[in-house]
Design goal:
2 domains, 19% strand, Umud Fragment, subunit A, 7-stranded antiparallel beta sheet, single chain, alpha+beta
Length: 211
């Protein structure tokens, strides 16, 4: 029988660590997969947007998370600034006028017209006194708002504006990996202690040879 000194130590179960790391990576990249599925399902490059201004209050608030669906320009509902009955669209205004925001704009359609084969949309925020400076060509329309969740987007706004989004993801990932590795090493240590006690007990119970 092998005694404690002859016992071969069990290797640390690296397989468990690898599996855990793979699961963490899958969880993060899984969000991109879900987003891709939404892009295909909603027929738009940006199926989810977060409202970053109060220009659409009181109907849509800053921090609301909106769901956006692609729609043919012909089918986008026209409305008026008074009745506020037009579709709410999300569009890319970058470069359309000086100082245009980099983030998509969420405004209501108050008029639409067609030049040749191209539709143009006159838009306005419900809380704004004047329409947007430039009419929006259909090529800039990301989609039509079809629903939303109030205020949940504040988490993204806070993390983005504070610059904490990426560092927070990195810290969470590192802490998860450290926790997993620590648990695996602790489990290995407990198994070694248990085996050592068993070996010691076996040695103590062995019959002593007579002189």
């Amino acid at each position: 029988m092998k005694n404690a000194s002859e016992k071969v130590k069990k290797p640390i179960p690296h397989k468990k660590i690898i599996i855990a790391v793979v699961l963490i990576i899958t969880a993060f990249f899984g969000s991109y997969l879900v987003y891709f599925i939404l892009q295909v399902s909603f027929n738009t490059e940006s199926p989810i947007v977060v409202v970053i201004s109060g220009s659409m209050e009181p109907n849509i608030h800053k921090g609301d998370l909106l769901f956006v669906a692609g729609m043919d320009a012909d089918d986008i509902k026209n409305g008026t600034a008074v009745d506020k009955d037009g579709d709410v669209i999300v569009f890319d205004a970058r470069g359309l006028w000086p100082g245009a925001p980099q983030e998509p704009i969420v405004h209501r359609v108050i008029d639409k017209y067609q030049i040749g084969d191209t539709w143009y949309f006159r838009t306005k925020g419900d809380a704004n006194s004047l329409p947007d400076a430039v009419d929006i060509p259909e090529s800039r329309v990301i989609g039509v708002v079809i629903g939303g969740i109030p205020y949940i987007g504040w988490v993204k706004i806070f993390l983005t504006e504070s610059g904490l989004l990426i560092p927070l993801l990195v810290v969470i990932s590192v802490l998860l990996i450290i926790s997993i590795v620590s648990d695996v090493i602790k489990e290995q240590h407990e198994e070694e202690v248990k085996d050592n006690k068993k070996d010691k007990k076996d040695i103590d119970t062995q019959p002593q040879e007579e002189e």
